[in-house]
Amino acid sequence: MEKISSCGYEWTIGLISQNSEHTLDSCLANTLNQLLGDSGIFAFYFSKSLSVQQTPCLTLASTGKQLCDENKTALLEVDVPPLLERLRKLNQDVQLLNLAHIQVLPVRYQGLVLGFLVLHNQSIIPTSGYSVLNHILNVYVHQLATLQYARMDPLTQLLNRQTFDEKIIDIASGKEAWLVRESKQQLHWYMAIADIDLFKHVNDNYGHVIGDEVILLVAQLLKSNFRAGDYVFRYGGEEFAIVFPCEHEAKAMAKLDGVRALIADTRFPQVGKVTISMGFVELKDAAQVADFVNRADRALYQSKQDGRNKVTAYSSLKDKQNNHHSGDIELF
Ligand SMILES: Nc1nc2c(ncn2[C@@H]2O[C@H](COP(=O)(O)OP(=O)(O)OP(=O)(O)O)[C@@H](O)[C@H]2O)c(=O)[nH]1
Predict the structure, then answer these.
(1) Buried b vs exposed e over 23-46: b needs ≥16 C-beta within 10 Å?
(2) Can you tell me which atom of ligand 1 is nearest the CA of 214?
(3) N vs C: which end of the chain shows fewer Cβ within 10 Å?
(4) ipTM value
């Protein structure tokens, strides 16, 4: 704790220099370990979605320290929902809650309590340390929000195109392999591109404002019909990409076709019926993101050729050897 400067300036600079959530978390962990010194045992519970809907979970804990007592009782285990409820009822100015064996610092963002830092009572912290801790947690949450907003499409709040490329590279290089390993069944990753059919007619007949509403509603339907661990992106104007793990291709097809049918059955305000076409591919055997996109694009092209409101797997295309001529139809 003796390392604390009056405002934690170096730590602040460290946190705001991070440009990925992963390095931001590591930086916060390092900062807390340094800040709390040898005596500090901490656990950080946080909801990364930056929304009240998600219950915070254990995101970080102190490294190389005794998190259990001699009887192997966890020192910092907390019952999250009631503690959260209690923190939410606290006045905004209250920055520290003293409980029997722990101290809790709420982490707020835009007036919401999104998580908290739990410190064991053995952690020896001078009074000035708490304000530095609060400051550091504030910087963390704001930097996280900045990173998240930079990854989002402003109209739909889906992940944006830049994030798509990064995610495909991560998956293709095995960085998301933990999910596949943890599943009881073997999982494969698939990438689908979905395009709203005859969208030009929507704009031409109803105007761009209604067109944007259609895009927004399709985005919401896609997002709410895939699981939390799947990724839904706004790929371009009226195009979306979905990246998700699945046991096998037939199941991936059934999932996508179910969502296609659901959108076709939804009544859109003013416009009425809207359909989407999709093409999808397994994320394997390609060197570049562009190769996967090209394959899904060709499958999507087939869905359009077959009359739209269809899903096509790249593996089902007969003439895979022929290069796709992008001039045939403009998809992107
Ligand atoms: N309202 C709105 N329109 C967009 C946006 N982005 C692209 N568009 C429009 O989407 C339309 C896409 O039209 P096309 O690519 O010709 O395709 P389509 O009419 O959907 O026909 P198919 O894809 O062949 O079924 C164009 O008129 C674009 O101007 C957007 O963000 N908002």
Answers:
(1) ebbebbbebbbbbbeeebbbbbbb
(2) 1
(3) C
(4) 0.92
